[in-house]
Amino acid sequence: TVVNELLGSINYWGLHTNRLGEFVIAPYVLPADRPVVHEFIAGDGSKLLGEYDSERDFYTVPNRFIAVCDDYKPQGNDDADPVTLVGVAENHNPDSVFSFEARGNRWVDEYDQVEATSHDDIDGIAVRRLAAITGGGDYVDVQYSPEVDLWRDDLVHVVTAAGDDYLATVNELEIPEHGLVRAKLRKVVGLA
To answer: Is 131:34 a contact under the CB 8 Å cutoff?
Structure first.
């Protein structure tokens, strides 16, 4: 929608409702910077289903994202000629297999045309896009009690019986009339 495109140009979430059904307009927060709202610890009654899925081509995952806005005009100066704004985000996370360092100091770039209203916004959009691409393909399924109140994009902490320990966002929810809730969690990978 037009509203969500405008919100995206200032690095905000799309218009959505909260748990109380109220409409919310808020700045986008990277998954690694959100508060953890629940922990799935092996043996706590939740079921990590062990259904792990990776949906990415490891060779093409970028470690640098360049956002370009070709028609930026400074606010309040409609008569000025448009200039190009460029926002750059880079992955230097030592724990990431996609980082610049892990790839032998080699950049794998991705570019996109975006709408932005300031240098801060375009930098934030570049970080948001790179974080989504870098962490966007590793999923794990979990089942849990309906008393646990999770929503899409909530951040959770997962510790498996095998000792895997990671943060993940709720990507999909399946809430049955009776029984356990099933969720698909997407692992979070930081950029720094």
So the answer is: no
